[in-house]
Amino acid sequence: SNGEYVDIEVSSTKDSETMKKCLNGVMSEGFEVVSYRGLPDDAANAMSIVGAGDYTLAFRPGYEPEDMDKETWFQGLIAFFERPSVMVTKKTKRGEKEMDLKPLVYELRICPEGDGEMEGPRLFMKISAGSAANVKPEQVLDAYYGFLGKERPPFAFMVLRRKPVFTPLSLWNSWVRKSDNGQISSDPAGG
Predict the structure, then answer these.
(1) What is the full DSSP assignment across 147-183?
(2) Nearest Cα residue to 9 out of 39, 34, 35
């Protein structure tokens, strides 16, 4: 992951830049605080204001599809999510329930090859996250594998969490649309 958030309670606070420097001064090696934001005393926790999460997925070497290239496979997944609904069975603490996954997948697109982190074609997805409606990338993959009549191999994908998106969920719902090239997009400018 290269984007996480954490709720902390402090007894006193200063401006964001000062607090960021203070936290980084005592942070474990490999971790860096890149932003510090105070919430009002009556605000819910950060998890409740997360609207979406950005992920990039790639096939692990040796797990590529046998019957097609990686980009074609990702194109098939994107086309699958253009259906009117994508019904899945979600396991809950109380059992199982049927749900439509499609409204919780805000953006799917193929990324160009190679960015230094993952080689080959990759799939970018922006999906619902947070306490209200949390979707995992594996649920998106499992829905497509189920449609193909297959089971997802357990270690077939590398998943990189990009960042949580702190925004009201209703804003994303108003942005979701299908572009001229057939990809699902949440860019209000149409890009």
Answers:
(1) HTT----TT-EEEEEEEEEES-HHHHHHH-EE-TTS-
(2) 39
Cα(27)–Cα(33) distance, integer angstroms: 8
What is the torsion angle, in degrees rounded to the nearest 10, for the CA atoms of residue 5, residue 7, residue 10 and residue 14?
40
Across the chain, mean pLDDT equals 78
What span, in angstroms and rounded, lies between the C-alpha atoms of 187 and 176?
7
The 3-state secondary structure of 46-102 reads: HHHHEEEEEEEEEECCCCCCCCCCHHHHHHHHHHHCCCCCCEEEEEECCEEEEEECH
> Which is it for strands 177-178 and 184-185: parallel, antiparallel or unpaired?
antiparallel
12-29 pLDDT tens trace: 888 888 888 888 888 888
